[in-house]
Design brief:
- The protein has 14 helices and four strands.
- By secondary structure, the chain is an all-alpha fold.
- The strands form two sheets. A two-stranded antiparallel ribbon has the order 1-2. A two-stranded antiparallel ribbon has the order 3-4.
- Helix content is about 70%, strand content about 5%.
Length: about 400
């Protein structure tokens, strides 16, 4: 297949859309924390983008998409993008290789940004930089290879259209592991730590919803009918998730606007692995279940006194887990060549469960080990005095509001 200019233009546009999701994460998380740490929280997302960008072009892309090594990791074929040029991409011959590299780069960056939920308001910047580079190299890159570059999960037949396992299970369950290592914020559980700016969080959620069209529809890697289908089911699932979370919060009190947009993100997360395999009916069910499931996961997290501050585990981890399994339930041949459980394909359903389970275990265990090592060597947390003052002043010497 020759390089197609229309496909190239669409993937370039999708790359820009996905890039916008990283500051979207920053604004969403920034609105959820206290005013004394909002600069720090948004800054972590920008830092995640910068770190992932350099790591990716130096060796991250090669470890993810280089020649398969025992089904676990890529080789060093593309070290510092050696051999990567304007010719066809090995896994997408209709677009230039450099475009494919850039598209995959923004996925790695936003995944790292999602992970910052676990360290909000209490992480040392230097320790985060070290942990971020270790995590991207030893957790994200292997998972990307397993699923998207011919690794052992791909060989088993696992489906993940745009990152349910690679992006959302990995970041969500890794956030849970880091939260357990770094511990609670001072005063957590003793007094209410309310979001300081809900409109900011809602703007961030809007940017995420917008960017997700590039995330999922761009993963078709072509300007075609599959991209159109992926875009429509993405929006449908997000809407269903927003409505069910809103309804669930309404039943327990007042209808939460913040809950509504959180439900929209839950629906977006859940449809991500399934976007290229399900129709709008399946998308409604996937999004609706995600809204309720992630809402109750949040309540469970709060009830257990776990300070995973911005709920990456509840929304991305649990939403991604449900979406990966739901792909094996609702995949339909009317969209792609794959079928799921409701069409009689139990094998695909079983494969999805095994792939999701393996991703959960690997992400959680490896991240826990990495966080423990960094904590032992450098210390993950700032001092109590710095935490009391707030990381904006203590770490950056800046204030969000004069």
């Amino acid at each position: 297949m020759e390089i197609n200019s229309g496909d190239t233009a669409w993937v370039l546009a999708s790359t820009a859309l996905v890039m916008l999701m990283t500051p979207g994460v920053g604004l969403f998380y920034g609105g959820l924390v206290r005013s004394k740490t909002v600069v720090s929280m948004i800054g972590l997302s920008f830092l995640a983008f910068a770190l992932a960008s350099i790591q990716w072009v130096l060796f991250g892309y090669s470890l993810s998409f280089g020649t398969d090594v025992s089904g676990f990791i890529g080789g060093l074929d593309f070290l510092a993008l050696s051999g990567v040029g304007l010719g066809e991409a090995p896994l997408a011959s209709n677009i230039p290789h450099l475009v494919y590299v850039a598209f995959q780069l923004v996925f790695a960056a936003v995944t790292l940004a999602i992970l910052t939920s676990a360290v909000a308001e209490r992480v040392k910047l230097s320790s985060f930089i070290v942990l971020a580079l270790l995590w991207t190299t030893l957790v994200y890159d292997p998972l990307a290879h397993w699923v998207w570059a011919g690794g052992w999960l791909a060989q088993m037949g696992a489906l993940d259209f745009a990152g349910g396992t690679v992006v959302h299970i990995s970041s969500g369950f890794s956030a849970l592991a880091i939260a357990l290592v770094i511990g609670k914020r001072m005063g957590f559980g003793s007094y209410v730590m309310e979001p300081h700016n809900i409109p900011m969080a809602m703007i961030g959620a809007g940017l995420l919803w917008f960017g997700w069209f590039g995330f999922n529809a761009g993963s078709a890697l072509a300007a075609n009918g599959l991209a159109a289908s992926a875009l429509l089911v993405t929006n449908t699932s997000a809407a269903a998730g927003a409505l069910t979370w809103l309804a669930a919060s309404w039943l327990k009190g007042k209808p939460s606007a913040l809950g509504m947009v959180s439900g929209g993100i839950a629906g977006l997360v859940a449809i991500t692995p399934a976007a290229g395999y399900v129709d709008v009916t399946g998308a409604i069910v996937i999004g609706a279940v995600a809204g309720v499931l992630c809402y109750f996961a949040l309540l469970f997290r709060v009830g257990r006194g776990l300070d995973e501050s911005c709920d990456a585990w509840a929304v991305h981890g649990m939403g991604g887990l449900w979406g990966a399994i739901a792909t094996g339930i609702f995949a339909t041949a009317s969209v792609n060549s794959y079928t799921g459980l409701i069409y009689g394909n139990f094998n695909q359903f079983a494969v999805q469960i095994m792939a999701a389970g393996a991703s959960v275990v690997y992400a959680f265990v490896m991240t826990f080990i990495l966080a423990k090592i960094v904590d032992s060597v450098m210390g993950l947390r700032v001092t109590e005095e710095e935490e009391y003052v707030g990381l904006d002043i203590a770490q950056h010497g800046e204030k969000a509001y004069a």
